[in-house]
């Protein structure tokens, strides 16, 4: 039997390639060898698959493109929500396919998450050379798909139909195949549910002619050979899956053993606690019985005394009412009743404050109070939370307790409800901070006990709830919208006012709030709201998830109201938002409901302009604070309208701005004082004070997505330091120093005053674009950034030294600065081949040469971790470098850590890591750029600045010192510096004609430098 040429090709390499995706069950395993052969034979320019699911067949096509070095552009089209044959499935399927795809094929392949009909418009007619149809398998569906895509086929196109050999249920591919096979050349495989190969175009690819023209014997041999090859793939997949399942079972068994062991330990501990609790309960029962007996006796005695007092008072009342003075003062009492109730109530409140209800006068400390204790090595700070059930507790109590710990204090907190049995414990602290606490017997006892022991009382407040006279519907819209009684709100404010009045000092969130508090003649400190590391990480992970997904073309304007008390706030922007929605159908307004999913937190019925726009409103359920970043990351525009002129709104913090900035949502806000100070209008967001200004701002951001993204990213960099946990710790450290008084307080005040005057500054960034990005969407603590320019001969060594780091979770960013020697290709190829090693890897390129400083900035900017280590492309890291430096930073609290460095190449020596002393920088730099740096510190000082002929790192360390950031040495040798003639130091900085100019430039930028002139 003479076999056609295709059988001699069966022994060619493609037929024995091993596929990269065998981790999911698939009916397509048996056709993978043919897929390899087909792609290498017809070499399609454009390949499209309709119906991808887990991506087994699509990965085979892409593997062939990679291994044969083809220039094919591949497209997978699927909604990834399932159909009647595959069933429905969750978002995790697309996430897994996206992760695998981006790691292996992102350079030439695109996932189109949409319907087949919608995707069709993405391709011009006659563009598709290879089309694989594997979607809904009914006759009507597959016929529709073929006819709809037929105009897109090229004149040499090949179409594959899967499941041609399935004749059960409502599968109808076989019917369409029988019809098409009579009209066009084709070939059918029967194994693995059947695969039809059709050439419907005018020209049949020459490599397929032999396949289509094979006689029965040859066709049978071809089918048999490919079935055998496919069976081998199926067996390989089953083996791999069996091994994976065995590993999972082994892991589950180990985990179960550990859980059982832990459960036994917990059970024994619980039994012991139960035994002790029973003993304690019996003791308490006996004690309670004794106390109850005593209380009954005392109550009887008190009752008798009360009856005697009442009798006496009645006699005295008769005497007073019958007296001449009572009759003479009747007109004064009548005038008093004519005074409005709020003024009488305020007068009573002031009288209560003055008398103290056993508390001391509001301004001066009691004469008999103990002097503040001499401070030990660690101050003791305790927070008493008046509203531990609200989000404000997290901002004002939990995060500031952590800040106090970071500042070196021993700090803890408790709820006001749990205060009574712990008053002595709390009073024993050095500083007692009361947050939103009302006057009560327990608070009164606490203040007396704390003062007796020399503790200072600080009252913390984050809203204007100490002005009872403002508790009216004119100022508090929540009284109307929530149905509160103004008298009850005012009474609550009076109780808060009583505690504030007797505190030694106050802390609050904004300057405007501080001005109101200072009416009480208190030392008042502004401690702003801020985010913690967990919120920052969650925000950035949400941003990365958003970037990895496929956009839906909508522009979302989000209004994140936390309660139904902001109707008048929303009214500031309501008209403009409604107009934007009406004029731009792609826009949506995102609003929130209570967590029960029923109660809207904004009553849109009060705004008629939205009655015809319900289809453009997205309602989301309110989420706990840790989940808020995921919601904010859905916003394209973050709307923060506030009622201008309302003292409550004017004093509100910048919280909604900086939380949205972390998720890179661009903010439009009303120009209250805090918002004007936080937002650089036109740079990090937009301010709008009228409906016309709101309309202009919103339409500008909707119509200019590039501007929107630019502002959002600038805002992210701008908030990194001022609202961070590190900055919060510095503020608490200054507060603790200032509350002690004396010289230490004066120095702390001066430092904070200078910092306040310094203001924020942006970071200069070059225009960069991504060449390759792979993100496993995990969490890492550090990123190594490699700026690259014409170091093709060295960069692989630098990259390999990053690969060898002992840190398991690590990110890598390479930024090519317009190299001309092929450096970018080397770096990109290396990154693609080793992407699985890193949590996230990105290769970027500057559109024009920007220089070392701005290229480093681009790397820092692209990093999504709290710490960044820049590594020049001609240097190397030793394996423990990142891990050791990170350990030093965490242990010391420093803003950066720098290692000892070994020179190699043209010269060899070791440069020790000297202790950090800012004044040592006055005579010259002693810290190399290879240092682990806090990204927030980098943003706070404005990043790296270009210095003609070099010393950008020296300038950066000087600015860090000027901003109060300090470093810590990692004593061991952890990095290697290459000495060679092509380095910037040899080519530019140290040249005799350049170095004096470099010194002058640094001394002009930093007047405290006095760098010795070169010999």
Description:
By secondary structure, the chain is α/β, with parallel strands linked by helices. The protein has four domains: 188 residues, Rossmann fold (3-Layer(aba) Sandwich), CATH 3.40.50; 186 residues, 3-Layer(aba) Sandwich (Rossmann fold), CATH 3.40.50; 191 residues, 3-Layer(aba) Sandwich (Rossmann fold), CATH 3.40.50; 238 residues, Spore Coat Polysaccharide Biosynthesis Protein SpsA, Chain A, CATH 3.90.550.10. The chain has 36 helices and 31 strands. Strands 22, 23, 24, 25, 26, 27, 28, 29, 30 and 31 form a ten-stranded mixed β-sheet that branches. It has a seven-stranded mixed β-sheet with strand order 5-2-1-6-7-9-8, with helices on both faces. It is globular. About 6% of the residues have low confidence.
Topology at a glance:
Blueprint: H1 5-9, H2 32-42, E1 46-50, H3 56-67, E2 73-78, E3 82-83, E4 87-88, H4 91-104, E5 109-113, H5 116-120, E6 128-133, H6 139-149, E7 153-162, H7 173-183, E8 186-189, E9 195-198, H8 206-212, H9 216-321, H10 324-328, H11 330-338, H12 341-355, E10 380-385, H13 391-406, E11 410-415, H14 423-427, E12 431-435, H15 441-452, E13 456-461, H16 477-481, H17 486-502, E14 505-508, H18 511-517, E15 523-526, H19 533-548, E16 555-558, H20 567-583, E17 587-593, E18 617-621, H21 628-632, E19 637-640, H22 647-650, H23 655-662, E20 666-669, H24 673-678, E21 686-687, H25 691-703, H26 705-719, H27 725-740, H28 742-758, E22 768-775, E23 782-788, H29 795-803, E24 811-816, H30 823-833, E25 840-846, H31 852-862, E26 867-870, E27 876-877, H32 881-892, E28 896-905, E29 910-911, E30 932-934, H33 935-940, H34 952-962, E31 967-979, H35 984-989, H36 995-1005
Parallel strand pairs: 1-2, 1-6, 2-5, 6-7, 10-11, 10-12, 12-13, 13-14, 14-15, 16-17, 16-19, 17-18, 19-20, 20-21, 23-24, 23-26, 24-25, 28-31
Antiparallel strand pairs: 3-4, 7-9, 8-9, 22-25, 26-30, 27-31, 28-29, 28-30
């Amino acid at each position: 039997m003479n076999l056609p040429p295709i059988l001699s090709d069966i022994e060619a390499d493609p037929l024995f390639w091993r596929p990269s995706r065998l981790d999911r069950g698939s009916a397509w395993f048996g056709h993978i060898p043919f897929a390899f052969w087909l792609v290498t034979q017809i070499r399609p320019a454009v390949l499209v698959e309709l119906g991808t699911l887990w991506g087994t067949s699509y990965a085979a096509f892409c593997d062939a493109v990679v291994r044969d070095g083809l220039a094919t552009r591949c497209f997978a089209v699927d909604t990834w929500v399932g159909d009647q044959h595959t069933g429905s499935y969750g978002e995790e399927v697309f996430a897994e396919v996206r992760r695998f795809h981006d790691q292996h094929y992102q350079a030439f392949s695109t996932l189109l998450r949409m319907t087949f009909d919608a995707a069709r418009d993405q391709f011009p007619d006659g563009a598709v050379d290879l089309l694989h149809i594997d979607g809904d398998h009914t006759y009507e569906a597959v016929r529709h798909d073929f006819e709809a895509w037929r105009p897109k086929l090229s004149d040499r196109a090949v179409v594959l139909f899967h499941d041609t050999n399935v004749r059960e249920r409502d599968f109808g591919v076989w019917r369409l195949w029988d019809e098409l096979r009579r009209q066009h050349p084709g070939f059918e495989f029967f194994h693995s549910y059947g695969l039809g190969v059709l050439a419907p175009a005018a020209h049949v690819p020459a490599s397929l002619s032999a396949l289509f023209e094979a006689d029965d014997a040859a066709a049978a041999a071809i089918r048999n050979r490919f079935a055998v090859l496919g069976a081998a793939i199926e067996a390989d997949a089953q083996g791999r899956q069996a091994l994976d399942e065995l590993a999972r079972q082994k892991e589950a068994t180990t985990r179960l053993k550990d859980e059982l062991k832990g459960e036994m330990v917990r059970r024994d501990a619980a039994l012991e606690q139960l035994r002790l609790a029973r003993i304690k309960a019996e003791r308490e029962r006996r004690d309670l019985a004794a106390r109850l007996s005593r209380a009954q006796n005392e109550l009887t005695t008190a009752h008798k005394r009360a009856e005697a007092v009442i009798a006496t008072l009645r006699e005295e009342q008769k005497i007073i009412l019958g007296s001449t003075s009572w009759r003479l003062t009747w007109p004064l009492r009548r005038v008093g009743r004519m005074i409005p109730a709020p003024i009488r109530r305020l007068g009573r409140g002031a009288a209560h404050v003055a008398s103290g209800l056993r508390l001391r006068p509001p301004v001066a400390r009691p004469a008999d109070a103990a002097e503040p204790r001499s401070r030990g090595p660690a101050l003791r700070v305790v927070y008493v939370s008046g509203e531990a059930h609200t989000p404000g507790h997290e901002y004002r109590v939990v995060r500031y307790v952590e800040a106090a710990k970071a500042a070196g204090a021993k700090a803890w907190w408790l709820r006001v409800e749990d205060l009574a049995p712990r008053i002595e414990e709390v009073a024993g602290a050095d500083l007692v901070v009361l947050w939103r606490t009302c006057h009560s017997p327990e608070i009164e006892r606490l203040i007396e006990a704390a003062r007796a022991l020399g503790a200072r009382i600080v009252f913390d407040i984050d809203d204007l709830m100490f002005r009872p006279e403002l508790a009216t519907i004119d100022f508090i819209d929540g009284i109307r919208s929530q149905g509160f009684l103004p008298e009850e709100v005012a009474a609550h404010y009076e109780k808060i006012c009583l505690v504030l009045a007797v505190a030694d000092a106050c802390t609050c969130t904004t300057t405007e709030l501080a001005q109101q508090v200072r009416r009480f003649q208190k030392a008042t400190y502004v401690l702003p709201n801020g985010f913690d590391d967990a919120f920052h990480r969650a925000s950035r992970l949400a941003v990365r998830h958003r970037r990895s997904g496929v956009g839906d073309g909508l522009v979302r304007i989000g209004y994140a109201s936390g309660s139904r008390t902001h109707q008048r706030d929303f009214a500031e922007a309501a008209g403009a938002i409604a107009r934007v929605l009406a004029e731009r159908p792609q826009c949506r307004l995102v609003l929130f409901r209570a967590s029960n999913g029923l109660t809207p937190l904004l009553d849109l019925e009060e705004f008629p302009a939205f009655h015809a726009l319900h289809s453009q409103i997205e309602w989301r359920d309110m989420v706990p604070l840790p989940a808020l970043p995921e919601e904010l990351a859905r916003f394209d525009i973050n709307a923060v309208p506030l009622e201008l002129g309302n003292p409550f709104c004017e004093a509100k913090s910048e919280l909604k701005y900086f939380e949205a900035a972390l998720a890179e949502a661009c903010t439009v806000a009303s120009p209250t004082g805090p918002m004007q100070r936080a937002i650089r209008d036109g740079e990090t967001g937009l301010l709008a004070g009228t409906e016309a200004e709101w309309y202009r701002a919103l339409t500008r951001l909707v119509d200019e997505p590039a501007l929107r993204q630019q502002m959002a990213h600038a805002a992210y960099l701008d908030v990194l330091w001022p609202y961070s946990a590190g900055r919060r710790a510095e503020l608490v450290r200054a507060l603790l120093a200032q509350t002690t008084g004396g010289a230490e307080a004066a120095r702390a005040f001066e430092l904070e005053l200078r910092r306040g005057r310094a203001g924020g500054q942006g970071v200069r960034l070059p225009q960069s674009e991504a060449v390759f990005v792979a993100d496993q969407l995990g969490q890492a603590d550090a990123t190594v950034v490699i700026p690259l320019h014409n170091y093709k001969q060295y960069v692989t060594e630098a990259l390999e030294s990053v690969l060898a780091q002992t840190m398991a979770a690590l990110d890598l960013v390479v930024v090519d600065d317009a190299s001309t020697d092929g450096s970018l290709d080397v770096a990109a190829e290396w990154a693609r081949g080793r992407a699985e090693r890193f949590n996230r890897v990105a290769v970027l390129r500057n559109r024009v040469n920007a220089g070392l400083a701005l290229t480093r900035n681009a790397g820092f900017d692209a990093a999504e971790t709290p710490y960044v280590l820049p590594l020049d492309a001609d240097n190397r890291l030793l394996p423990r470098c990142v891990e050791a430096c990170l350990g030093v930073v965490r242990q010391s609290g420093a803003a950066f850590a720098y290692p000892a460095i070994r020179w190699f190449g043209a010269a060899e020596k070791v440069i020790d890591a000297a202790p950090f002393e800012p004044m040592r920088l006055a005579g010259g730099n002693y810290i190399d750029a290879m240092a682990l740096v806090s990204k927030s510190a980098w943003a706070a000082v404005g990043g790296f600045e270009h210095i003609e002929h070099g010393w950008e790192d020296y300038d950066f360390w000087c600015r860090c010192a000027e901003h109060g950031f300090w470093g810590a040495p990692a004593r061991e040798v952890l990095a290697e510096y290459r000495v060679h003639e092509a380095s910037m130091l040899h080519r530019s900085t140290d040249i005799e004609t350049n170095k004096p100019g470099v010194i002058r430039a640094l001394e002009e930028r930093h007047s405290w430098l006095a760098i010795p002139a070169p010999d």
